[in-house]
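2024-03-11 09:14:02 DEBUG pipeline.ingest accepted 1 chain
2024-03-11 09:14:02 DEBUG pipeline.ingest length=95
2024-03-11 09:14:03 DEBUG pipeline.predict start
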Amino acid sequence: MGATDGDATAFGDVEAATRGAIAELGELADVQKALAETAYRLARALDSGTKGMAISATAKELRETLTAIKEASDAGDAASQLEAFMSSAVGDGSY
């Protein structure tokens, strides 16, 4: 069973919130799927009682991973918009 499988009620608070945030992005590209799995594992580590300075380091890495997923999503949206614009007839104003 993969990290993305299972019952949502079995997740801790941080992992549940992380999964919810990632789900809001919709369909993920391959690189985003790998980053999502990393984010789930980091969130699980925070939920399982990471201690001391490891909490800060893990939280920072989770934040950076979520940012990378979002940036990859934004880049994909921008590329899709540019492709649509470039495919439209000149001067038709649509995309």
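2024-03-11 09:14:41 DEBUG pipeline.report Helices lie at 13-23, 30-47, 53-87.
2024-03-11 09:14:41 DEBUG pipeline.predict end
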